[in-house]
Design a protein that fits this description.
The chain is mainly alpha-helical. Helices cover 67% and strands 2% of the residues. The protein has helices at 3-8, 19-39, 45-52, 56-62, 66-90, 94-111, 113-120, 127-134, 136-149, 161-175, 184-195, 211-218; strands spanning 11-12, 15-16. Strands 1-2 form a two-stranded antiparallel sheet. Strand 1 (11-12) and strand 2 form a beta hairpin. The chain is elongated. The protein starts with a helix and ends in a 6-residue tail after the last helix.
């Protein structure tokens, strides 16, 4: 084995995995991503093992609990959402940056039930995942303030509105699943028309949810 190949081998518990163990780990991760995407986080490790075509003992050697497997898959996904928010903040058009972020994130959760449950339902909690989800709120606040400062976004919109909007769009995607799964894009257009500021807009009569209420609904636990 060359020095280069040793450096690129997956590491577990501080030690590089053997080639066969590394292949099994990647097979398990790939299978878990597929079943979590299609069926959500309620599936068992036995189900993942069958989908990966490995023994369940092999799964438990690599991931002793389902929570460990979920963490391995979704911590990176949540950090990718932060990268998407950073890209949206860098867009020269504040409104288009916000639109791109909403469209990209909704596409992800519409197609991936597991990511939806982790990101918006608090279906899995761990220190790193809770931190990654909680870290999204400052990005949302910055996107909204920037779009409001440009005069494009209604002044009543708050960061806590965004997770609620994403729930609505995910529900639209699920409602039409198997028939027209991308219909959520139509309702995103409807919502964007409502979010965009116009001179003759009446003020919204109902206040938004507080950040604390939304975080509780998402399962985000802040340290005392």
């Amino acid at each position: 084995m060359t020095e280069r190949s040793r450096q690129s081998d997956p590491v577990e518990g501080g030690r590089p995995l053997r080639r066969d163990a590394a292949r099994n780990r990647e097979r398990i991760l790939h299978a878990a991503r597929e079943v979590f995407c299609q069926q959500g986080l309620g599936v068992t490790l036995d189900h993942v093992a069958r989908h990966a075509k490995v023994g369940v003992g092999t799964v438990y050697r690599r991931f002793p609990t389902k929570e460990a497997l979920i963490r391995a898959l979704f911590e990176q996904d949540l950090r990718m959402r932060q990268k998407a928010a950073e890209s949206a903040l860098a867009h020269p058009d504040p409104w288009q940056g916000l639109v791109d972020f909403l469209a990209g994130t909704t596409a992800d959760i519409a197609e991936n039930r597991g990511l939806y449950e982790v990101l918006l339902l608090g279906a899995h909690t761990s220190g790193p995942i809770d931190a990654a989800r909680g870290d999204m709120l400052p990005f949302l606040e910055a996107l909204i303030l920037r779009a409001q400062a440009s005069g494009d976004l209604r002044p009543e919109v708050t960061p806590s509105d965004i997770p609620v909007i994403q729930h609505m769009l995910h529900a639209a995607a699920q409602f039409s699943q198997g028939q027209q799964p991308d219909v959520w894009r139509r309702y995103l257009e409807v919502l964007l028309n409502g979010l965009r500021r116009r001179p003759d807009d009446p003020s919204l009569a109902t206040p938004s949810l507080s950040n604390e209420v939304v975080e509780r609904a998402m399962g985000i636990v802040r340290p005392e």
